[in-house]
Design a protein that fits this description.
Distance between the termini: 62 Å
Radius of gyration: 20 Å
Largest sheet: 7 strands, mixed
Helix content: 10-25%
Order of helices and strands: EEEEHEEEHEEEHH
Structural class: alpha+beta
Number of strands: 10
Number of helices: 4
Shape: flat
Strand content: 25-35%
Length: 231
């Protein structure tokens, strides 16, 4: 028996704002169900950023990121083949975030874009955003340091140390030669965390792998204005 397609369902709901630090972050939930796509997205909306124009731009960016995840889920759903007499396969998408830091004038979030579209394994992509809660300026990895090359060396040395300590070296798909300016990162109250996407250095079964580098180890090469807020 051929199953009837899903009825279109698109719902956007805002959760009560919760103050978790310097600014207030409220969560918006977006659901979409139609035919071969089942998507749930959670994305943040900010209030309390001193620069209101920057706040508006960041809030628009957050919604756009969730919408991009929905588009990827729809595209994957279009590629599924329907077989007569069998239930329609569907693409499941889940987009969400974690607040990693929200104090001392710095907000840092980690986003997960998960997609399952049939086959043995799904896929998961990480992204992150770190910005100043006073003016909304977004921090890049390179922008944190006085001398990127010197600080990258310190970070690489710590990652090499952790590879050995955590027994991860035998799992490497390719030799680790060092980070670059495009690595995904976030900050906590104590650490700079480098995130390697799944299948970059490690098997799919391990997912993304994170390396936390204490900010105290990087203090000498952080820009003074960065040191004053994140260390």
């Amino acid at each position: 028996m051929k199953l009837l397609p899903f009825v279109l369902s698109l719902a956007v709901m805002s959760a009560p704002a919760v103050n978790v630090g310097d600014i207030t972050i409220s969560s918006v939930t977006e659901r979409y169900q139609q035919d071969s796509v089942d998507f749930t997205g959670y994305y943040p909306q900010f209030s309390g950023i001193a620069d209101r124009d920057a706040q508006k731009e960041l809030n628009v960016l957050m919604r756009e990121k969730a919408q991009s995840a929905l588009i990827r889920a729809k595209t994957a759903g279009m590629g599924l083949i329907s077989v007569e007499g069998q239930p329609q396969r569907s693409t499941e998408g889940l987009y969400g975030y974690e607040v990693k830091r929200n104090d001392g004038g710095v907000v840092s979030l980690l986003f997960t874009d998960g997609l399952y579209a049939g086959g043995a394994n799904g896929s998961e992509k990480k992204s992150a955003l770190t910005f100043s809660s006073s003016n909304g300026d977004v921090y890049t990895l390179e922008g944190l340091f006085l001398d990127g090359a010197a600080c990258y060396g310190a970070i690489n040395a710590e990652i090499h140390r952790q590879l050995l300590e955590r027994g991860l070296e035998p799992e490497l798909l390719q030799p680790f030669e060092g980070i670059d300016a495009n690595e995904v990162f976030y900050v906590t109250d104590t650490d700079l965390v480098i995130v390697f996407q799944e299948i970059t250095y490690f098997p799919h079964s391990m997912g993304s792998v994170e390396f936390a580098i204490p900010l105290s180890q990087l203090e000498a090469c952080l820009k003074p204005e960065i040191t004053s807020v994140i260390s």
